[in-house]
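Postdoc handover notes: sequence design on the structure in folder B. Input tokens:
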């Protein structure tokens, strides 16, 4: 027997939870950053007000400005309590918090000189923070709001009277230039910070994909070593069984009974299939037992594969169509055979009492194989994680490795495997392989024999 397959890890959480958990964590962290930034703003505004009032001897409306500051403190305490709650922080909540910050800053500037106050460019800090934390529509809304506040402060504000100076007056041209400068800075901040953030997210996604592929390849190597060792161990008992069955077939008591003779012949067929699987495992691992990869043609390869699969499986009907496929010389590789055979096996398991369909076509230099069944189809969660290891609803240890290995064999050839549920019922798995990769002489080095099933729903589920 094969060694017991490795136990499947704990089932993955639902996809909605997987997607929401990082989003929820990021929302809470962003809210915490805003709270910390707001405390800095409170401390900075308080220090500035006291310095201007007492050190520079500039008269300020302290009651109004400190009232605004107290309101900002209370709001930040409410945000701190909100951050301790478990539910997710939405983008709208972050936007609302920034609106309060803009409102308080506008009020402080109104009482401290309006557009003549150099701190008016703190609006750009709100725009920069918004462009990092918020979605695009909220970011541009923040640009529009701060621009409106900027323009309003050019018309309505309490002049800031400095000692020894009259009320400062700015020309309309200067004010217009200030507004244009502000709009230019705000727009460039949003555009370039957005682009930089998008580039960083794309980089992180590529790194995550590379790490996932590396983990999958390591997983394949471990399974290859396990399967190769099992194949070596199985060689001797299979040879012994073959000799025993051969002796039984020639013994008079068995030869005289037609039913026993048929059962022995069926056992010999299945034993030969087991030996073929073992040879395929060792061949894929680079240890040939018998036939090595041979030169053939694409038509002969496909026809032989279908004929062999039909003769060794209890299939009711396999509708095989091969149209417009060039008869190119290719390498008959066991991993390629077993990859296609595994997809057919999964279709047969999903729909054992209904006809199956295999359609082979050539499209723009790509070999396209479509395997269709009339089973219950794939579960939505399985489709979302198609080809991942241990993604199966069949309820057995090691399930889900079949399509995982098939996907990696296709990937090694520069191709891909995709699945979908058909509108009329059943499922379709599409294998796409570049014809150029089949013509070249290569070694796949993948373990393909005896793969467990995929993530298909059990029949009748």
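Designed sequence:
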């Amino acid at each position: 027997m094969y060694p017991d397959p490795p136990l499947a890890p704990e089932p993955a959480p639902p996809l909605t939870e997987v997607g929401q958990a990082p989003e929820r964590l990021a929302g809470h962290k962003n809210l915490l950053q805003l709270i910390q930034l707001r405390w800095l703003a409170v401390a900075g505004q308080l220090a500035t007000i006291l310095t201007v009032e007492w050190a520079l001897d500039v008269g300020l409306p302290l009651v109004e400005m400190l009232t605004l500051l107290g309101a900002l403190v209370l709001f930040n305490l409410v945000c701190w309590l909100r951050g301790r709650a478990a539910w997710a922080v939405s983008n709208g909540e972050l936007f609302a918090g920034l609106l309060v910050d803009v409102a308080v800053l506008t009020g402080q500037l109104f009482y401290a000189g309006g557009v003549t106050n150099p701190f008016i460019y703190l609006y750009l800090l709100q725009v920069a923070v918004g462009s990092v934390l918020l979605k695009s529509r909220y970011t541009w809304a923040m640009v529009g709001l701060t621009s409106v506040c900027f323009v309003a402060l050019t018309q309505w504000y309490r002049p800031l009277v400095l000692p020894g100076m009259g009320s400062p007056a700015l020309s309309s041209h200067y004010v217009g230039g200030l507004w244009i400068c502000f709009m230019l800075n705000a727009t460039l901040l949003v555009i370039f910070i957005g682009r930089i953030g998008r580039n960083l997210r794309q980089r992180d996604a590529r790194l995550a994909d590379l790490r996932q592929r590396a983990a999958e390849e390591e997983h394949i190597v471990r399974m290859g070593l396990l399967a190769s060792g099992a194949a070596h161990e199985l060689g001797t008992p299979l040879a012994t069984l073959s000799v025993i069955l051969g002796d039984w077939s020639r013994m008079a008591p068995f030869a005289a009974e037609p039913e026993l003779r048929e059962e022995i012949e069926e056992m010999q067929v299945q034993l030969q299939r087991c030996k073929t699987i073992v040879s395929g495992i060792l061949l894929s691992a680079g240890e040939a037992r018998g036939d090595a990869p041979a030169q053939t043609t694409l038509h002969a390869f496909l026809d032989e594969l279908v004929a062999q699969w039909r003769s060794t499986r209890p299939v009711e009907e396999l509708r095989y169509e091969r149209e417009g496929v060039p008869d190119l010389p290719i390498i008959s590789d066991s991993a390629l055979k077993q990859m296609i055979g595994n997809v057919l096996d999964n279709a047969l398991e999903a729909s054992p009492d209904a006809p199956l369909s295999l359609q082979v076509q050539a499209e723009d230099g790509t070999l396209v194989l479509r395997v269709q069944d009339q089973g219950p189809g794939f579960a939505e969660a399985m489709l979302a994680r198609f080809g991942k290891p241990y993604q199966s609803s069949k309820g057995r240890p090691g399930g889900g490795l079949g399509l995982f290995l098939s996907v990696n064999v296709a990937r090694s050839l520069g191709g891909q495997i995709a699945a979908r549920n058909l509108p009329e019922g059943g499922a379709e798995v599409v294998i796409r392989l570049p014809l150029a990769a089949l013509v070249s002489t290569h070694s796949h080095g993948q373990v393909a024999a005896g793969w467990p099933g995929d993530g298909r729903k059990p029949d009748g589920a």
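Context for whoever picks this up: Confidence is low (pLDDT under 50) at residues 1-19, 286-292, 395-399, 441-461. Don't rerun without checking with the PI first.
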